[in-house]
Amino acid sequence: MADRNIAGSSTPRGRRNDVVAAEKERFGGIKWGSAFFGWLTAIGMTVLLSALATAIGVGVGAANSSTAEQAAEQAQQNAETLGIVSGIVLAIVLFLAYYCGGYVAGRMARFDGAKQGLAVWLWGIIVAIIVAILATVAGSQFNILSDLNGAPQIPVDGSLMTASGIIGLAIAFIVPLIGAILGGKAGMRFHRKVDQAGIDHQTGVAG
């Protein structure tokens, strides 16, 4: 019996590719609805992971300092180190959150996982632009993303002109993009396994 992993229309893998290509031609492309739910997942995970990281940081600080005053002094002495650590933690939180969001979108849309991940990221950009415009026109109280640590935001107060502002913006926009695309591709691969199982069943190939 032919190796199931050898490409070609006469093999189970080849038949699966033919079926997937036909399905993708009809149902492929960016699915904005799936991407929106993926973005909601990413925002929810951002909130949860940020809260967890904050709780861990508070716990570690309390364990290493006997008083609040000592903790404050230590924080001032290690401000630069804390800034670097905070940036790394933020990058990890955003990567994991948007990986989950991309995965949800890829699973829901079934095809074009990278595009679904990109669409999840674009939803974040679209919402950030709308919120920035609202905050500029109606006041900072409408900047609803300000309470979400790590949620992509577009600064409207000139903070982008600082070095830390540029680095923060890069983390907030580039890291989620990478995470969302990788997550979208991972979510799509699940369906390829399901498709292969169906083809194997039809052709009588053992799993």
Structural topology:
Blueprint: H1 12-27, H2 32-64, H3 68-77, H4 79-109, H5 113-138, H6 163-203
Helix pairs in contact: 1-6, 2-4, 2-5, 4-5, 4-6, 5-6
Structure characterization notes:
This protein has 207 residues and is mostly helical. It has one domain. Helix content is 76%, strand content 0%. It has six helices and no strands. It is elongated, with a radius of gyration of 22 Å. Keywords: Membrane, Transmembrane, Transmembrane helix.
Overall tally of domains: 1
Q: What percentage of residues falls in helices of 4 or more residues?
A: over 70%
Largest sheet: none
The portion of residues forming beta strands comes to: under 5%
Number of helices: 6
Q: Provide the low-confidence segments as ranges.
A: 1-8
* Shape label: elongated
- Got a strand count? 0
Average of per-residue pLDDT values: 74
How do the SSEs run, as a string of H and E?
Answer: HHHHHH
Find the structural class using helix and strand composition.
Answer: mainly alpha
Radius of gyration based on Cα positions? 22 Å
What's the N-to-C terminus distance?
14 Å
What would you say about this model in short?
This protein has 207 residues and is mostly helical. It is 76% helix and 0% strand.
